[in-house]
């Protein structure tokens, strides 16, 4: 009887072979020029004289899909403006629970809160797609914002909108039952559908929906099945169709009314 094959050593050449790294993105760490800055929505109202100090320090940074852009608690070094791609803001507990706080799109920005208070990053950010951001060191950006009234007002309006959005989501979590929270989320994620109703396209995984509304994946699965039986949701190849969005909105409003007694 032949002897059993020897187990491969963890120090074999195959195990020692380094993992392939993705090729660097073509514009990684290149200067973000004056014209580039002027095309970013935050900076469009300003002329070359105002933007010149920022253009001297602004750099492009690129991220591949799935790459962590920053972690909560990281030092506040840059304010970043999204030129391409989609990013997700998440909060993670020490026990490993993850909650999706927001998604960022071209024209958005992140890092402004840490730049203002000088503390670590308030949440983690992950790239959903290949992304390109213009990064500006916190100190020059804050100098620009504080010395330029229009920039200060724009920044304050953005922060005010962020606070209002967080207040609305906290209210949902505090007072609405799971079905009403899911209905509110689907309405926010959806867009008008040709022929009537609304559609969430592409459809979101159940674990992602659960992470957004503070529940478990299996609860979302059961609730979506109940909505489908009620004629309020229909999963198709094109996405999750909401044929009667008015009924879903009425459920959300009824949930708020019930919380008031």
Could you walk me through the main structural features you see in this protein, from its secondary elements to its overall organization?
The model is unreliable at 5-22 (pLDDT under 50). This protein folds into 2 domains: 21-169, Sandwich (Jelly Rolls); 176-259, Arc Repressor Mutant, subunit A. The radius of gyration is 23 Å and the shape is elongated. It has a 4-stranded antiparallel β-sheet. The chain has helices spanning 13-16, 34-39, 48-55, 112-117, 138-147, 149-175, 178-189, 206-213, 217-229, 245-259; strands at 59-63, 68-70, 78-84, 87-92, 98-104, 109-110, 124-127, 131-137, 191-192, 198-200, 234-236, 239-242. It is α+β, with helices and mostly antiparallel strands and 261 residues long. Helix 7 packs across helix 8. This is CRP-like cAMP-binding protein.
What top-tier CATH class of the largest domain fits best?
A: Mainly Beta
Overall average residue pLDDT: 88
CATH architecture descriptor of the largest domain: Sandwich
Spatial arrangement of strands, main beta sheet: 1-8-3-6
Inertia-based shape: elongated
What structural class results from the helix and strand content? Answer: alpha+beta
Instruction: Identify low-pLDDT runs.
Output: 5-22
Tally of extended strands?
12
Query: Percent of residues in beta strands?
Result: 15-25%
- The H-and-E topology, N to C, reads as HHHEEEEEEHEEHHHEEHHEEH
Number of helices: 10
Q: Tell me the helix content.
A: 40-55%
Provide the domain count: 2
Helix and strand topology:
Elements: H1 13-16, H2 34-39, H3 48-55, E1 59-63, E2 68-70, E3 78-84, E4 87-92, E5 98-104, E6 109-110, H4 112-117, E7 124-127, E8 131-137, H5 138-147, H6 149-175, H7 178-189, E9 191-192, E10 198-200, H8 206-213, H9 217-229, E11 234-236, E12 239-242, H10 245-259
Antiparallel strand pairs: 1-8, 2-7, 3-6, 3-8, 4-5, 4-7, 9-10, 10-12, 11-12
Helix pairs in contact: 5-6, 7-8, 7-10, 8-9
Protein name: CRP-like cAMP-binding protein
Region (Disordered): 1-30
GO molecular function: DNA binding; DNA-binding transcription factor activity
């Amino acid at each position: 009887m032949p002897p059993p094959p020897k187990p491969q050593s963890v120090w074999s050449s195959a195990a020692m072979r380094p993992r392939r790294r993705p090729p660097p993105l073509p514009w990684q760490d290149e200067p973000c020029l004056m014209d580039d800055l002027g095309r970013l929505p935050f900076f469009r109202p300003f002329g070359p004289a105002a933007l010149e100090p920022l253009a001297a320090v602004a750099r492009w940074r690129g991220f591949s899909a799935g790459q962590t852009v920053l972690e909560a608690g990281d030092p506040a070094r840059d304010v970043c403006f999204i030129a391409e791609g989609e990013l997700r803001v998440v909060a993670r507990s020490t026990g490993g629970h993850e909650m999706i706080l927001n998604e960022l799109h071209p024209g958005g920005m992140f890092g402004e809160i840490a730049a203002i208070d000088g503390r670590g990053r308030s949440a983690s950010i992950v790239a959903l797609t290949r992304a390109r951001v213009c990064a500006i060191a916190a100190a020059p950006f804050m100098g620009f914002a504080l010395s330029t009234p229009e920039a200060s007002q724009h920044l304050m309006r953005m922060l005010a909108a962020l606070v209002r959005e967080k207040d609305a989501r906290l209210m949902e979590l505090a007072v609405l039952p799971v079905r009403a929270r899911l209905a509110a989320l689907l309405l926010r994620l959806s867009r008008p559908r040709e022929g009537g109703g609304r559609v969430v396209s592409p459809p979101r995984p159940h674990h992602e929906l659960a992470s957004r509304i503070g529940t478990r994946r299996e609860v979302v699965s059961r609730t979506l099945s109940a909505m489908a039986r009620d004629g309020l949701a229909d999963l198709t190849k094109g996405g999750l169709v909401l044929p009667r969005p008015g009924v879903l909105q009425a459920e959300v409003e009824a949930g708020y009314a019930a919380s008031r007694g």
